[in-house]
């Protein structure tokens, strides 16, 4: 079961949704990097459940325990291990459906691959696995900070409602991370109606990485956009990704799609900051298609472990819309890829005669 990510900066997450703890081991971080542990906690707090009426009410504090690799606010160069204990596990919520496959979840595919019956809360396939990713992403940000690289993700759309303008500062204060102040109330009302109906709804998250220098990325098979695409598509609910104008480019002519250059730089950014798999110095912009939460309280058709037709209703604590909590995870995965690209660039430059 692949749980390790990265080439120069490696990240291994561990733990199950209803196990004793979640955690991560980050290796490859150079010694002497300033890293305030409160920064790690801040990012975990942005991801954790129970923060508003629009996310899962699971009551986790998500307190980070740093076991190794950091002392007196600086990295030691050794592996950084972080543990986050599960404090509010309610496995009993799954007793009556323990032999049923939940539609939209990985229950069926895990059963076919590993022979495992459905695990409480989804086990390793749960969104709770992303706790370790977010903690690791905070470490990656510390590597990028001296270069002025910043990353922010925000909710661009929920269902049919799509932002007409982008106010990133507002997004950080809004419970859905909606980036359009004029749309926030309508978006919240829609999620509330869906939640009260025992259902869920999908949306779109946009990620912007500013300050990335030109020249990062390993072309051909390890293109920067390929690495970013793999990273965000490894987030459970993400089913699509586009860079810059993305799929809209398919309807354009080359004269429309290309980004002209002037003596002052690029005139537009339809490519989303990456050309030939290498950063071009413009903001890296990508959008993620986020599916509706699979766990819903409405009757759905399924089968049990013996293949018999059954009807299932999934009760418990679930997010009516995943976008606000996927934002911090998408930021973390973006930071990890960019930090890996930074270390690769340093290794490449160091190898030059």
What does this structure look like?
It is a single chain. With 353 residues, this protein is α+β, with helices and mostly antiparallel strands. It has one domain: Chorismate synthase AroC (Chorismate synthase, AroC fold), CATH 3.60.150.10. Helix content is 27%, strand content 22%. The chain contains eight helices and 18 strands. It has a five-stranded antiparallel beta sheet with strand order 1-2-3-7-4, covered by helices on one side. It has a five-stranded antiparallel beta sheet with strand order 9-8-10-16-11. It has a two-stranded antiparallel ribbon with strand order 5-6. The longest helix has 28 residues. The mean pLDDT is 92.
The CATH topology turns out to be Chorismate synthase, AroC fold
Shape: globular
Binned strand content? 15-25%
Low-confidence stretches: none
Structural class: alpha+beta
CATH architecture tag: 4-Layer Sandwich
CATH classification class: Alpha Beta
* Total beta strands: 18
Fourth CATH level, the homologous superfamily: Chorismate synthase AroC
Number of helices: 8
H/E element string? EEEHEEEEHHEEHHEHEHEEEEEEEH
Helical coverage, percent range: 25-40%
What is the residue-mean pLDDT, rounded to a whole number? 92
Q: Strand sequence of the main sheet, in spatial order?
A: 1-2-3-7-4
């Amino acid at each position: 079961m692949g749980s390790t990510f990265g080439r120069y900066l490696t990240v291994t997450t561990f733990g199950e949704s209803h196990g004793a703890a979640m955690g991560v081991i980050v290796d490859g971080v150079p010694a002497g990097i300033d890293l305030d542990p409160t920064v790690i906690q801040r990012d975990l707090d942005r991801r954790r459940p129970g923060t508003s009426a629009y996310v899962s009410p699971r009551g986790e504090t998500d307190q980070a325990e740093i076991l190794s690799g950091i002392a007196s606010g600086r990295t030691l160069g050794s592996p950084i291990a972080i543990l986050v204990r599960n404090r509010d596990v309610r496995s009993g919520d799954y007793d009556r459906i323990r032999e049923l496959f939940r539609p939209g979840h990985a229950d069926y595919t895990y059963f076919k691959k590993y022979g495992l019956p459905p695990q409480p809360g989804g086990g390793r396939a749960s969104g709770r696995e992303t706790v370790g990713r977010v903690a690791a992403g905070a470490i990656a940000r510390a590597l990028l900070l001296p270069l002025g690289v910043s990353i922010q993700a925000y909710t661009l759309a929920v269902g049919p409602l799509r932002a007409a303008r982008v106010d990133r500062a507002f997004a950080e204060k809004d419970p859905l991370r909606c980036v359009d102040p004029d749309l926030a109330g309508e978006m919240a009302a829609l999620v509330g109606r869906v939640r009260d109906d025992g259902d869920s709804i999908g949306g779109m998250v946009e990620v912007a990485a500013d300050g990335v220098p030109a020249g990062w990325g390993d072309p051909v098979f390890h293109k920067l956009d390929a690495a970013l695409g793999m990273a965000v598509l490894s987030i459970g609910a993400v089913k699509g990704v586009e860079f810059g104008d993305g799929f809209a480019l398919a309807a354009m002519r080359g004269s429309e799609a290309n980004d002209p250059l002037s003596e002052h730089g690029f005139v537009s950014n339809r490519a989303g900051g990456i050309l030939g798999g290498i950063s071009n110095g413009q903001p890296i912009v990508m959008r993620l298609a986020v599916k509706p939460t699979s766990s819903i309280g409405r009757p759905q058709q399924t089968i049990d472990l013996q293949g018999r037709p059954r009807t299932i209703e999934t009760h418990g604590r679930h997010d009516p819309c995943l976008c606000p909590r996927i934002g911090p995870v998408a930021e973390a995965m973006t930071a990890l890829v960019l930090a890996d690209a930074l270390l690769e660039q340093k290794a490449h430059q160091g190898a030059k005669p």
